Amino acid sequence: MSENSCNINDKGQSCCSSNQNENLISHWNDAYNSKPSEKLGWFEIDLSPTLKLINQAGLDKSARIINIGAGNTTLIDELLNQKYKNIVATDISSVALNKLDSRVQSGFVNYIVDDITQPKKLNLITNVDLWIDRAVLHFFTEEKDQKTYFDLLKEKVTVGGYVILAQFNLDGALKCSGLPVKRYNQEMLSNQLGNDFELVDYFNHTYTMPSGDQRPYVYTLFKRKS
């Protein structure tokens, strides 16, 4: 066996995948421990691009909304302010979700620590009416991780449900938080979702980081047809 070969553990998992997972957990926990959330490069003060698309979806206040890679986002606060009552906040970082939980302190939010490229707890959720992902998908540069992501999305989002994907656009940075990213436009996202999802709206948006640097994004809203 070569030095670069991977062993398989007693659960049938690659040890390389396990180590990669542990490295990512450490990476994001360290990021959230390193400085206040409002100083992190992805922290949003202006939530209007996402809120615009949420309002277009016109959901009932009891709709199940899942925020992928929620971190310590104030989007959860805003959803609660708008009286949504069935919110799931998920992230690979327990540190981030603990900070969010401590700040929000609401019984209307369910917190799930999981890796969406190796989902365990996320496999158990059902009937998602709105899937929100700002700046998570673009970290998955390998096709197998992209497939796992979209397979889970397609399994969980109900017919008539919505998907908001906001990722680095084709003019965006090549890295974020020191990690490589895959950049997208609306056509690439449509192709990944397939014919069961209709593109309702999209727009480009330039996000200004706390440091003052700018990051071009594409924001998309899809509806599940069948």
Write up what this structure looks like.
The radius of gyration is 17 Å and the shape is globular. Helix content is 31%, strand content 27%. It has one domain (15-224): Rossmann fold (3-Layer(aba) Sandwich). The chain has a seven-stranded mixed sheet. The chain has 226 residues and is an alpha/beta fold. The chain has helices at residues 15-34, 48-57, 75-81, 94-104, 143-156, 186-193, and strands at 64-68, 86-91, 109-113, 128-134, 157-168, 175-176, 179-180, 197-208, 214-224.
Properties at a glance:
7-stranded mixed beta sheet; 6 helices; two-stranded antiparallel sheet; single chain; globular; alpha/beta; Rossmann fold; 226 residues
